[in-house]
């Protein structure tokens, strides 16, 4: 009986131990599965987030590059638009014989047609009294400068051309800064002028205010001059007709006589000019000689009397 009870207890204990062991194995397997699933989900989330972050980073870089390009383009455009350059040109133009006055009128009309104007002109005539050469200066708006040069080249044969540009951007910027500072000083001095009650203080403020106002007017005048020179480019043209080929003077008697008379007249004119120009000196020398002669004469008379 004791052996049977002991065997039953042993079997019962083994069954319970096997059941507990089975439960433990099942729980561990489930826990591992859940942990693997969680790890897989986490890795999937990380994989999904990584492309999203890369995409966002790429978009940010692209937007940053676009912003940089826009900023660079805007700055370049601003610098180009604000740059102030004074353009000038000088051209020597040979035109056909007898076309001087016509070409001169065409150049004047070219300037007026492009909203420009004639600045200066000077003409020279030949021995027969016909105008054959001269200078003309026109002012053209800066945006019509190059087209005007091309039109002028078509009016004749270009013998020489010189084009130059003077950048006055830095000077203009400095003038603007100085003008702002002086205008601020002017406002302060005006306020002090209103608040001052003493006569001496008012006089001192008025003197300083006059000095500042004068500097402001000088700077404004310089800025207006630069604006005018930048807005209208200057083109100076020298026009001339081809010079006639001189003929052989010849060896005839009349030609020789004519040249001799011209030489004699030239010599006589030179002597006459010399005499007239030196007449004051000659008169002064004659007066000195007369005085010396009178002194010598008086001495001789005194000696003769003795």
Distance from N terminus to C terminus (CA atoms, Å) equals 211 Å
DSSP summary: helix tally = 6
Q: What is the alpha-carbon Rg in Å? A: 53 Å
Instruction: List SSEs in N-to-C order.
Output: HEHEEHEHHEH
Describe the strand arrangement of the main beta sheet, using strand numbers. 2-3-5-1-4
Question: What form results from the Cα inertia axes?
Answer: flat
- Poorly predicted sequence stretches spanning 5 or more consecutive residues: 25-81
Number of spatially distinct domains:
2
Structure summary, number of beta strands: 5
* Main sheet record: 5 strands, mixed
Q: Report the mean per-residue pLDDT as an integer.
A: 76
SSE class = alpha+beta
Strand content: 15-25%
Percent of residues in helical segments? over 70%
What's the arrangement of secondary structure elements?
Blueprint: H1 2-82, E1 85-94, H2 100-113, E2 117-125, E3 131-141, H3 145-153, E4 157-167, H4 169-195, H5 199-231, E5 232-240, H6 253-305
Parallel strand pairs: 1-5
Antiparallel strand pairs: 1-4, 2-3, 3-5
Helix pairs in contact: 4-5
Give descriptors for this structure:
single chain; 306 residues; alpha+beta; 2 domains; 5-stranded mixed β-sheet; flat
């Amino acid at each position: 009986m004791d052996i049977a009870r002991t065997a039953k207890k042993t079997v019962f204990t083994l069954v319970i131990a096997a059941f507990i062991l089975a439960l433990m194995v099942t729980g561990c397997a489930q826990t591992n599965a859940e942990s693997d699933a969680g790890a897989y989900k986490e890795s999937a989330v990380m994989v999904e987030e990584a492309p999203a972050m890369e995409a966002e980073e790429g978009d940010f870089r692209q937007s940053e590059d676009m912003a940089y390009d826009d900023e660079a383009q805007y700055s370049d455009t601003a610098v180009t638009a604000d740059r102030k350059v004074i353009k000038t040109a000088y051209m020597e133009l040979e035109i056909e014989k007898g076309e001087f006055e016509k070409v001169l009128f065409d150049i004047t009309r070219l300037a007026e047609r492009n909203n420009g104007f004639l600045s200066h002109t000077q003409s020279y005539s030949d021995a027969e009294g016909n105008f054959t050469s001269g200078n003309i200066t026109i002012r053209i708006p800066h945006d019509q400068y190059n087209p005007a040069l091309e039109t002028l080249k078509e009016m004749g044969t270009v013998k020489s051309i010189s084009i130059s540009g003077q950048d006055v951007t830095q000077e203009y910027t400095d003038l603007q800064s100085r003008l702002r500072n002086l205008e601020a000083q002017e406002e302060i001095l005006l306020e002090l002028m209103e608040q001052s009650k003493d006569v001496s203080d008012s006089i001192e403020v008025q003197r300083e205010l006059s000095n500042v106002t004068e500097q402001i007017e000088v700077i404004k005048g310089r800025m207006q001059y630069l604006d005018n020179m930048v807005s209208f480019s200057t083109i100076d043209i020298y026009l001339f007709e081809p010079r006639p080929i001189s003929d052989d003077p010849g060896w005839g008697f009349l030609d020789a006589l004519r040249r001799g008379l011209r030489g004699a007249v030239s010599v006589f004119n030179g002597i006459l000019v010399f005499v007239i120009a030196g007449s004051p000196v000659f008169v002064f020398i004659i007066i000195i000689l007369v005085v010396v002669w009178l002194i010598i004469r008086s001495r001789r008379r005194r000696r003769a009397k003795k």
